[in-house]
Design a protein that fits this description.
By secondary structure, the protein is of the alpha/beta class. It contains seven helices and 15 strands. The structure holds NADP nicotinamide-adenine-dinucleotide phosphate. NADP nicotinamide-adenine-dinucleotide phosphate binds next to strand 1, strand 2, strand 3, strand 4 and helix 3.
């Protein structure tokens, strides 16, 4: 994985990250008892719609657990699914492994075959998608964060409820110091209230890696707070 950045650049690809995260760093939950199902803790349909819009016609890199948590395949997207073994994929049908007319397919990958898959995309895929989205989960974000040049972050103002029996899956974004030096917030809000269950508030951020990392470093996050770029004063749109 350590040569991934060079490989991506050599192939003319760009890695972008898309994540929804609560202020305490939660990105998902897993049930504390069998069958240990993985899912999102909140119901924010607007975030799912944003995900569909942003990642349309792009390839996606994800961990096996995130893949298994998807309710269905994401249409028009190649799912590059990382696992240390190929066992899990033995039950996939040849139809699922081959790309359909809409561009939907599953490409099981390991750390060793990832470069091959990226080469297939960049050199041999009819659409030659330039952007590959890193969509999680925590293990995958942690490994790919440093290679991403764009971040689509949804802050979801969700808190664990009393009596909730699941385990939280945490992911902490790179420290604010990295954002301040190398990143620029190009879109920030406003806060919105979801139509979904619980009417949770959320805000969309878009962050890009600076061409020149030094420029305006101290004010890169403007009036924001902590590692997540949370605006200090929430501007709610109820
Ligand atoms: N809020 C969000 O934006 C968001 C996004 C995605 C997921 N999620 C949530 O996150 C949870 C799942 O995330 P997770 O962190 O538990 O799992 P994950 O990152 O999706 O998957 C972890 C698995 O991926 C494989 N893997 C990761 N890196 C690899 C590497 N370098 N080489 C080979 N295999 C590798 C391994 O599979 P093997 O065990 O097979 O080796 C590992 O066990 C779910 O609750 C999901 O709903 C939330």
């Amino acid at each position: 994985m350590q040569h991934l950045g060079e490989e991506v650049a050599r192939l003319g690809l760009e890695l972008a990250c898309i994540v929804a995260v609560s202020p305490n760093g939660t990105i998902g939950v897993t049930s504390a008892e069998p069958p240990y199902a993985q899912s999102l803790p909140w119901d924010v349909p607007e975030d799912l719609a944003n995900f569909q819009r942003v990642t349309k016609h792009c390839a996606l890199i994800m961990g096996r657990k995130t893949f298994l948590s998807l309710p269905r395949l994401l249409k028009g997207r190649i799912h590059i699914v990382l696992s240390s073994t190929s066992n899990w994929a033995s039950e996939l049908s040849s139809t699922e492994l081959q790309e359909d007319d809409e561009g939907t397919a599953i490409w099981p990958a390991t750390a060793d075959t990832l470069a091959y898959h990226l080469t297939q995309l960049a050199r041999h895929h009819p659409q030659r998608p330039r952007t590959v989205f890193v969509i999680g989960g925590s293990a995958v974000f942690a490994q790919f964060a440093e290679f991403c040049t764009r971040w689509y972050i949804t802050i979801v103002n969700w808190q664990r409820g009393e009596g909730d029996m699941f385990k939280e899956v945490h992911y902490c974004l790179p420290p604010a110091s990295l954002f301040q030096q190398e990143m620029e917030v190009v879109h920030n809000g406003p806060w919105m209230r979801s139509r979904g269950k619980g009417n949770v508030e959320y805000v969309f951020l878009k962050i890009e890696r600076r061409a020149s990392a030094a420029e305006n470093a101290p004010t890169a996050l403007g009036g924001t707070d902590a590692a997540y770029g949370l605006p200090k004063e929430k501007e709610k749109q109820d």
